Amino acid sequence: MKKQKATKKQGNKNDFLFGKRNYTFMLIGVAFITLGFILMAGGGSDDPKIFNPEIYNFRRIRLAPTLVLIGLAIEIYAILAKSKK
Question: According to the model, what pLDDT value does residue 82 have?
Answer without folding.
Answer: 86
